[in-house]
Amino acid sequence: NSDLSTIFENIRPRAKQAGMDGSKEALYNFFVQEVRRNMHIVLSFSPVSNSFRERLRKFPSLVNCTTIDW
Predict the structure, then answer these.
(1) pTM above 0.90?
(2) Sign of the four-CA dihedral 19, 23, 26, 29
């Protein structure tokens, strides 16, 4: 897979610096770890409509597991 090869080439120096060996499995795990650490998701909803309330009822984690910036 050419996409993974490119990712492995780019992340190999950082993985070695972190003390990992150069195996494909280790590089992939390091890549996934870095993505999880750096990924931030922004959701934007309009609080004006009734659909916002409906979404909050259907998906309570939108309130319980997030940071809300009113």
Answers:
(1) no
(2) positive
Spatial contact of 4 and 28, defined as CB atoms under 8 Å apart: yes
Over residues 16-23, the mean pLDDT reads 90
Going by C-beta distance under 8 Å and a sequence separation of 6 or more, which residues neighbour residue 7?
A: 27, 31
What stretch of H or E contains 56?
helix 50-58
CA–CA gap between residue 10 and residue 8 (Å, rounded): 5
Measured N-to-C along each axis, helices 2-17 and 24-38 cross at an angle, to the nearest 10 degrees, of 80
CA 7 to chain centre: 16
